[in-house]
Design goal:
Layout lengths: L45 H4 L22 H20 L4 H8 L5 H50 L4 H29 L5 H5 L1 H17 L8 H8 L2 H9 L7 H6 L3 H11 L5 H15 L15 H17 L2 H13 L6 H26 L1 H24 L4 H23 L1 H10 L5 H30 L1 H22 L8 H8 L9
Helix pairs in contact: 2-5, 2-7, 2-9, 4-5, 4-8, 4-9, 4-19, 5-18, 5-19, 7-15, 11-12, 12-21, 13-19, 13-20, 14-15, 14-17, 15-16, 15-17, 16-17, 16-20, 19-20
Pfam family, one: Sugar_tr
Subcellular location: Membrane
Membrane topology: Multi-pass membrane protein
Length: 518
């Protein structure tokens, strides 16, 4: 899900109150269609990490499989948050010069970078706060509450007449995005049917890609109209209103409803989006988790230091460290220069090519996520990213023919973005809530994304200095090496979660659960 941003020097990091009804019957779409514990030691054996194989699907393979459809509208509404994320990633890249000129800090690259990167400070704080919000309010109400900073931030930015105002606007937007990046994977993982959880979860990545592409198209007039930036920031407030209204009709997470004692509402949601045959089995699983894990008593941040939550928090943080230090920020930042070498001088056109490669990879992930599984997709993704990085490094470091070298650089860049969008982007955000316990899911996700934003900032901050000191080829070789390390990590420290309910995964990975008859 997690696309980094392209931003200008010298700090190039980076890549929303309504109340909900307590009765899901009134505000939901209706469709009718007839390991053991994870071991973090390098010497961990495959047997220790292996979950039982999921039961085979006994449905007639020739029949139309529409089991994903009842949950799709709700997931689609949630993915509007990712569209906003992608939109705000790209919306300031083009018109930043016009903003600086109109607000009086033109030529000050530090302040220009600050206008873009203040977004990350807000996102970090939003990520930290999100876990507690979703535990107390549930997903729907948190989504609606989060539209307040998203809408206000966009409007404040659009009406800004000083540096302070644009900074406050961007900070508020970042605050909302920080909450949403945590909230969307949790919501989708808890609402989507087990069989389609991976494919529906990939809508996060697709939403982000579409948001980036939309912002790039809307940025085009900013090249000739110095005041166009206000218009596109006003437009940024519209998806927030759509999200707030749409969530009024979306279902609440049945797991959260069960946790807070709204058992009848939970059954109604399950019946509407998973089917009547799943109600009893799902409720039994939810209640088993509550009984064994004490979910109803709430959670504390210090519990992240306790087993088994500390292991999953470590895995989540490590996955985002590897994702960011595999170089997605740097590649996106440097891609415009790579395209210029082959005659594509328009930065918007270059970014559009990158956005289309990203979107194509996300579409492939929709098909592959539940077919091949998370672990295999993540390994293949990082291997593809490593090959792409080494290809670009060789093309730059050992140029035989200038035209051939430039073409190989373009190929490597598009391959990198494509393979990132297949696995490293969507899988990282999806697998962490799947491995997390129900009790600590919100806080583990909040911690993991806080690590994401810190690493996002550091890579963006250091990338240009590293290129200046060592050159592009050595830096890209380093990115490729980290990608290889990430593939190895995914091979030996992750388990496959495809085809298993969140409760089955938690019972298998948590040694505190009592042994049950199968």
């Amino acid at each position: 899900m997690w696309v980094a941003t392209v931003i200008p020097k010298p700090v190039p990091p980076v890549l929303s109150v309504l109340t909900s009804s307590r009765n899901p019957k009134q505000n939901s779409f209706h469709f009718r269609f007839s390991y053991r514990p994870l071991n973090l030691k390098v010497s961990a054996t495959k047997q220790q990490q292996q979950l039982p194989e999921p039961k085979a699907d006994k449905k007639n393979p020739s029949s139309s499989d529409l089991g994903w459809l009842p949950a799709f509208p709700h997931v689609l509404i949630a993915s509007m948050s990712n569209f906003l994320f992608g939109y705000h990633i790209g919306v300031m890249n083009g018109p930043i010069v016009s903003v600086a000129k109109e607000l009086g800090f033109e030529g000050n690259s530090t302040l220009e970078g600050l206008v873009v990167s203040i977004f990350i400070a807000g996102a970090f704080l939003g990520s930290v706060a999100s876990g507690s919000l979703v535990d107390k309010l549930g997903c729907r109400r948190t989504f609606q509450l989060d539209t307040v900073p998203l809408i206000l931030g966009a409007l404040v930015s659009a009406q800004a007449h000083s540096l302070d105002e644009i900074l406050w606007g961007r900070f508020l937007v970042g605050l909302g995005i920080g909450v949403n990046t945590v909230l969307v994977p949790i919501y989708i993982s808890e609402v989507a049917p087990t069989k389609y959880r991976g494919s529906l979860g990939t809508l996060c990545q697709i939403g982000t890609c579409l948001g980036i592409i939309a912002s790039l198209f809307l940025d085009i007039p900013s090249e000739t109209d110095p005041h166009w930036w206000r218009t596109i920031l006003y437009i940024a407030s519209a998806p927030g209103f759509i999200l707030a209204l749409g969530m009024q009709f979306a279902v609440e997470s049945p797991r959260w409803l069960c946790k807070v004692g709204r058992l009848d509402d939970a059954k109604t949601v399950i019946r509407n989006i998973w089917g009547s045959s799943e109600v009893e089995t799902a409720i039994q699983g939810f209640q088993s988790v509550i009984k064994n894990n004490g979910v109803n008593v709430g959670s504390r941040w210090l519990e992240l230091l306790e087993e088994p939550h500390s292991r999953v928090a470590f895995i989540g943080g490590a996955l985002f460290v590897l994702q960011q230090f595999a170089g997605i920020n740097g590649v996106l930042y440097f891609s415009s220069l790579t395209f210029k070498d082959v005659g594509i001088t328009s930065s918007s056109l270059a970014s559009l090519f990158v956005g289309l490669a990203n979107f194509a990879g996300a579409l492939c992930a929709v098909y592959l996520m539940d077919k091949e599984g998370r672990q295999k997709l993540l390994i293949g993704s990082y291997l593809g990213m490593a090959v792409s990085m080494f290809l670009i490094a060789c093309a730059i470091g050992f140029p035989v023919d200038e035209e051939l070298s430039n073409n190989l650089s373009i190929l490597g860049t598009l391959m990198y973005i494509f393979t990132f969008a297949i696995g490293a982007g969507p899988v990282t955000g999806l697998i962490i809530p799947e491995l997390s316990s129900a009790k600590m899911r919100g806080k583990i996700m909040g911690f993991s994304f806080s690590v994401h934003w810190v690493c996002n900032f550091l890579v963006g901050l250091l990338f240009l200095d590293l290129v200046e000191i060592f050159g592009v080829a050595p830096v890209y070789t380093g990115f490729g090496s980290v990608s290889l390390l990430a593939a190895i990590y995914a091979k030996y420290f992750l388990v496959e979660t495809k085809g298993r309910s969140l409760e089955e995964i938690e019972m298998s990975l948590n040694p505190n659960f009592s042994v049950r008859d199968k």
